[in-house]
Design goal:
Elements lengths: L22 H12 L6 E6 L5 E7 L24 H18 L9 E7 L5 E4 L16 H8 L7 E5 L4 E2 L13 E2 H13 L6 E4 L5 E5 L10 E2 L10 E4 L10 E3 L9 E2 L2 H7 L7 E2 L3 E2 L2 E2 L24 H9 L10 E5 L5 E4 L5 E2 L6 E2 L10 E5 L5 E4 L3 E2 L6 E5 L5 E4 L4 E3 L6 E5 L5 E5 L2 E4 L5 E5 L14 E5 L2 E9 L5 E6 L13 E6 L2 E4 L2 E5 L7 E4 L4 E3 L2 E3 L10 H7 L5 E5 L1 E3 L5 E5 L4 E4 L3 E2 L4 E5 L3 E4 L2 E4 L1 E4 L4 E4 L1 E5 L2 E2 L4 E2 L2 E4 L2 E4 L5 E5 L1 E4 L4 E6 L7 E4 L3 E3 L2 E6 L6 E5 L2 E3 L3 E3 L2 E4 L6 E8 L2 E8 L11 H11 L8 H9 L6 H10 L2 H28 L7 E14 L8 E16 L3 E16 ...
Parallel strand pairs: 2-3, 3-5, 6-7, 11-12, 17-21, 18-22, 21-24, 22-25, 23-26, 24-27, 25-28, 26-29, 27-30, 28-34, 29-35, 30-36, 34-37, 35-38, 36-39, 37-40, 39-44, 40-45, 43-46, 44-47, 45-48, 46-49, 47-50, 48-53, 49-54, 50-55, 53-56, 54-57, 55-58, 56-59, 57-60, 58-62, 59-63, 60-64
Antiparallel strand pairs: 1-2, 4-5, 8-9, 9-11, 10-13, 13-14, 15-16, 19-20, 31-32, 32-33, 41-42, 51-52, 61-66, 65-66, 67-68, 67-85, 68-69, 69-70, 70-71, 71-72, 72-74, 72-76, 73-74, 74-78, 75-77, 77-81, 78-80, 79-80, 80-83, 81-82, 83-84, 84-85
Helix pairs in contact: 2-4, 5-6, 8-10
């Protein structure tokens, strides 16, 4: 017979002889009843693979479900289960399906009848099939035979539920949570008995009428693993005796009282889990008065125990191991990663917890485990120091990353380790019992699923509840309350409550001495949750921590359950210190020293109005949420900022007194830019305290709003945020609904290179006056043009729109003015002036490329046309110079030219040029454009001039330009752009002499070169505040050149070609002082006009040119020309072309 002893005890059937066994008759009666059973509701329970495992049969009120313990007719349900209660039965059996399903062998679902009774109790029964007598399954429960051996169950198993005050959890939890008896956990316990956790030891009367105990003709698989204090294991026909009984001739099994029975359950799997702890076996309950049990596992507070206080909702790993030892195939590691049952151990746990492979033989590292109620690490023992060095991914429903019981354990989570419980209602870290626990978390703890809690400090309730009609206990820090079942005058079972029952030593102190966090901690329902029965003494958030989720404490030192006398005797104040910014030691534990490098933004809420004392001890905390706490302390050197509301709760319960004040000895800085800190309570700023209030250009400021009295000493610092400031502003950084006592100095925090401010405080307010000097910007300019822009900025009126952002970037830049210097060069329109100068360079390059060809072809045959195509390229690098920025320019294009000689030594021709030019300014501006130009060239050198000549070249063209000016400094990033069409041209005229030296010709020359570039007025697109308007402008250059030209006479090159070379050198001098003046202004402000002078860089330079020409007898010629300009104020230019020429 397999039955639970029940929540209250009852006697087993009474035999007529010493070891009479009542199973056979009961089973027969049950079989007779089964043929007459009434209708019932059926639910099929499947495992995760959707394989049917159990069949639940619910019998409503009045329907007969049988009674395997009675020799009378089958028992009928005496009251009606509600739909919720049926669901709770289903949940309990589903838990077992999850555990047993993968290893179960039953081909058909195992039947379980569910009925009700009037007793204040509950039990589960599974009688073995009478046909198993003499078979290997003799002594096993019906469910064990079916699930392990696919044996035929007959009769069905049975669950009976008595009349009690049941609690059905709203959400799954590893801890009991209700006031009544937890129905799901209770039936999970009962099913454990029906599955085989039950002894077949019997009780009867001896010949003298005394009670006798022993094992009859059958023993269960459970019994075979029991060992008494003398090492005896039960056998059939063995007597059970109490310690001290005089020994007889036959071996006996010795059993003590209750949890001190001296009996252990031992087995291979249990031994593996315990690893030498608990004397190698599970403690088993012995006698309870006159009743012999041997069917409960008496691990502390275990679900499978018969203790009055149990705070587990599922089996521990060692209890699952016991089921393995009696024959069940269970993938135990799917539900527990590792368990520590020993005491005073120091170990590094490198065992992880992940999903299992299909065979259930190994973990799949990195893949989350999804088993419901799975636990990555369970610390049962006491005094251990355990470092977790592998990931624990317990992500099933109600999964728990780490559970800590026992006392005085130290848990360390190594850096980089993930402790995750991301399934619904998961718990990353659970401290569930004891006192003096310590946790140092340097890894990640998270529970991001629905209802998840990162770190939970909670004894839970008791499986039996406190209002269930049963004897039960409720425990916590300095809490032990006890209820006892009794009968009233009418015989009804009632509950009597005895508060402050004898306090156990394991409850005399904080559940957690300290919780030090230097890694990520998150929970969707709470990052940290402290229950009403758990005292956590110190929570230290140190550098490296990242919090997501609320911090909630329901702990109340004034709770009537708390045994205050014992608390006072121990000198404990029962308060929780929540500290931010203490310095961490090398092992991650918090010290008492402040950490100036601590930085944290926390956007959750802190709800602990009865117990939490909040402090910022070092570094900087930005808290953005609600805090309901006893008091707040900002220590000297620490900073507290953010948008938050603090509600302070003074405490004086006769044992502890807290005045409920927000004390600032460091820095309080409302907002994260502009924001408000609201204090519902009193505020006291000490002589070292600082209130930092930021304000913006609109006059909006940070605010400290005190709904109470405020005493403000120390210093009020006013700090302007970047913006455009002009004129005066009025600020109100401090308000108080009560008395405002002012004893502070006012200091303005402004370190601007350009902006000046003064502050005048008065009665919690302050007036700010802003101004700028006339040279506020221009004094930092890199050149004259940039200085002109700076002066325009200083004189601006009516600044609007994005230009206010431009001023903010300037005024709130590097104090040494280096950013302003850079910005003014970018804001200056030098790029447009440089575009004109680059155009001059391009025209002179074209003239330098075309004219040498004219010279090299002369003299020509009269009337002979020479047509050429000349691709070319040139680069110009002009560094910055006084007044302007520099640029790099490049040109590529194609010259088409035609020339013809006339009688008398005149060569005339024309050319067309297509040019693509790109220019990049050193500080600003990117120009791209194309031009089309038409021109003419000529050379007059009659023979009777004896080497003298005159020459000229000119062109005119239209250009399409695309300008982009990037302005980027101090976070201000804009791009201005403009397209326009302009005109440019050049003309060159000169003369010279060439003496013929036989093989070469050489002589001097002089020339004058004029170039112009014309641009219309324009207003830049885009760019916002940095946009410029420029008036139309034509730029000019006039340059003279004196030099020497040399060429060779034509020479033979092979049989069919000749060649001819030329070279020149000239001193160039710019005759104009400037190319022009640009007149511009900023678009988004008035009175910002300025003028920039465009000067030709380096008025003197040396021009060099060289080339070679190849003539063939096929009327085709090839020319290669190159040139450069040197010594022009660091400017360098290189250009060249390849010409192909046809003559006809």
């Amino acid at each position: 017979m397999y039955k639970q002893e029940g929540l209250l005890r009852k006697e087993k059937c009474m035999p007529r002889n010493r070891f009479f066994h009542c199973l056979t008759l009961a089973a027969a009666v049950f079989l007779l009843w089964e043929t007459q059973a009434s209708a019932y509701e059926t639910r099929i329970i499947t495992d995760h693979a959707n394989t049917p495992l159990f069949q639940l049969r619910f019998f409503d009120q009045g329907e007969k479900y049988g009674n395997a313990l009675s020799e009378t007719e089958g028992e009928a349900s005496t009251w009606q289960l509600s739909a919720a209660q049926k669901d709770a039965v289903t949940q309990a059996v589903e838990r077992w399906a999850d555990i047993l399903g993968p290893g179960a062998n039953n081909a058909v679902p195992a039947a379980i009848n569910v009925g009700t009774m009037n007793e204040v109790n509950a039990d589960a029964i599974s009688v073995g099939n009478p046909a198993w007598h003499g078979a290997p399954w003799e002594g096993a429960s019906g469910l064990a035979g079916a699930l392990i051996g696919d044996q035929s169950m007959n009769p069905p198993a049975q669950i009976r539920i008595g009349r009690m005050n049941f609690s059905i959890p709203d959400i799954p939890s590893p801890l009991p949570t209700g006031d009544g008896i937890e129905l799901v956990g209770t039936l999970y316990h009962e099913m454990g008995h029906a599955l085989g956790i039950s002894s077949l030891a019997t009780m009867g009367e001896g010949y003298d009428g005394s009670l006798v105990y022993g094992f009859d003709t059958e023993i269960s698989p459970w019994d075979r693993h029991l060992v008494d204090q003398y090492g005896v294991t039960p056998t059939t026909d063995m007597e059970v005796v109490r310690p001290g009984t005089a020994p007889g001739a036959d071996p006996v099994f010795t059993v003590g009282e209750m949890t001190e029975s001296g009996v252990l359950f031992k087995g291979t799997h249990v031994s593996e889990v315990l690893a030498g702890a608990l004397n190698g076996g599970l403690p088993i309950e012995g006698f309870e008065g006159d009743s012999l049990d041997l069917s409960h596992i008496e691990l502390d507070r275990s679900l499978m125990s018969h203790q009055d206080y149990r705070n587990y909702q599922v089996f521990m790993e060692a209890e699952l191991a016991a089921l393995q030892d009696i024959g069940y195939t269970i993938d135990r590691k799917n539900f527990y990663g590792f368990s520590v049952y020993g005491d005073n151990l120091t170990l590094d746990n490198g065992r992880g917890y992940f999903a299992r492979n299909a065979d259930g033989t190994a973990y799949l590292p990195g893949q989350p485990n999804t088993a419901a109620y799975g636990v990555g690490l369970h610390i049962y023992g006491s005094g251990n120091d355990i470092t977790q060095t592998a990931d624990l991914l317990a992500c099933g429903t109600a999964g728990t990353g780490i559970r800590v019981d026992g006392e005085a354990n130290t848990l360390r989570i190594a850096p980089g380790v993930r402790v995750s419980a991301d399934g619904a209602y998961g718990t990353g870290l659970l401290l569930a019992y004891g006192k003096g626990q310590n946790v140092v978390s340097r890894g990640e703890i998270r529970a991001t699923g629905t209802g998840g809690v990162g770190a939970r400090f909670d004894f839970g309730g008791s499986l039996l509840g406190l209002d269930s009609g049963l004897t039960a206990e409720y425990r916590g820090s300095y809490i032990r309350s006890r209820t006892e079942a009794a009968e009233d005058e009418s015989g009804n079972v009632v509950t009597q409550l005895y508060e402050q029952h004898n306090l156990l030593d394991e409850l005399k102190g904080p559940l957690a001495e300290r919780f030090d966090v230097s890694g990520p901690l998150s929970g969707s329902a709470a990052a940290i949750y402290i229950s009403r029965n758990a005292w956590v003494k110190n929570i230290n958030i140190v550098n490296g921590a990242a919090l997501s989720g609320d911090i909630i404490s329901d702990w109340n030192p004034g709770n009537s359950d708390v045994q205050q006398v014992q608390t006072a005797a121990n000198g404990d104040d029962l308060l929780t210190s929540l500290s931010f910014g203490r310095l961490a030691a090398g092992d991650g534990s918090a010290t008492d020293a402040p950490d100036p490098d601590f930085r944290l933004r926390y956007d959750g809420n802190i709800m602990g109005k009865h117990s939490i004392r909040m402090s910022v001890d070092g570094g900087a905390l930005s808290f953005n949420g609600r805090a309901e706490v006893l008091d707040v302390n900002v220590r000297e050197g620490a900073t507290l900022s953010g948008n938050a509301e603090y509600t302070l709760n003074a405490l004086d319960n006769g044992y502890v007194s807290v005045d409920g004040t927000f004390t600032n000895a460091g820095t309080v800085a409302p907002g994260n830019s502009i924001g408000t800190i609201t204090i519902n309570g009193d505020y006291h700023q000490t002589a070292t305290g600082r209130l930092l209030a930021e304000f913006d250009a609109s006059g909006t400021s940070d605010r400290l709003a005190v709904n109470g009295n405020a005493v403000v000493n120390g210093t009020l610092y006013l700090a302007p945020l970047p913006g455009y400031y002009a004129g005066s502003l009025s600020l109100a950084p401090i308000t108080a609904s009560g008395n405002l006592t002012e004893g502070y100095a006012t200091n303005l925090l402004l370190d601007s290179p350009t902006l000046e401010m003064t502050a005048t405080p008065q009665g919690g307010t302050a007036t700010i006056l802003s101004s700028r000097a006339a040279d506020a910007y221009s004094r930092y300019a890199a050149n004259g043009n940039a200085a002109n822009v700076g002066r325009a900025l200083s004189s601006a009126d009516g600044v609007r729109d994005d230009m206010r952002n431009l001023y903010a970037a300037l005024d709130f830049s590097a104090p040494d003015g280096s950013t302003v210097r850079k910005a003014l060069s970018q804001l200056s329109p030098d790029a447009y002036g440089n575009a004109a100068l680059a155009s001059f360079d391009m025209h002179r390059m074209l003239s330098d490329l075309i004219l040498p060809g004219t010279f090299s072809r002369a003299p020509q045959k009269d009337g002979e046309w020479h047509v050429s195509a000349q691709p070319y390229a040139g680069t110009f690098d002009q560094p910055g110079r006084s007044g302007m920025g520099g640029y790099d320019a490049a040109n590529v294009g194609l010259i088409g030219s035609a020339e013809r000689s006339t009688p008398g030594g005149l060569t005339v021709g024309g050319h067309v040029v297509f040019n693509h030019q790109s220019m990049t300014g050193d500080t600003n501006g990117k120009l791209r454009g194309e031009g089309l130009y038409l021109g003419a060239q000529g050379l007059y050198a009659p023979a009777d001039w004896d080497g003298w000549n005159v020459f000229g070249i000119g062109r005119l063209g239209v250009e399409n330009w695309r300008m982009k000016r990037a302005v980027s400094f101090n976070g201000y990033n804009r791009e201005n752009s403009k397209d326009w069409t302009g005109f440019s041209g050049s003309v060159r005229a000169g003369g010279g002499y060439e003496a013929d030296w036989g093989t070469i010709k050489a002589g001097p020359f002089a020339e004058l070169d004029y170039a112009f570039s014309s641009r219309p007025s324009l207003t830049e697109d885009n760019g916002m505040g940095s946009r410029l308007h420029l008036d139309s402008e034509t730029f000019h250059s006039l340059r003279s050149s004196l030099g020497v030209r040399m060429s060779t006479n034509e020479r033979q090159f092979g049989e069919h070609a000749t060649w001819k070379a030329h070279a020149s050198a000239a001193w160039n001098h710019e005759l104009l002082d400037k190319a022009g003046t640009m007149h511009g202004s900023f678009v988004d402000a008035a009175n910002t006009g300025f003028s920039n002078t465009i000067k030709v860089p380096g008025r003197d330079s040396l021009g060099l040119g060289a080339g070679v020409r190849f003539n063939t007898d096929k009327h085709v010629s090839f020319s290669l020309n190159a040139g450069s300009e040197l010594f022009r104020r660091d400017e360098t230019s290189v250009y060249g072309n390849l010409a192909v020429e046809w003559k006809f």
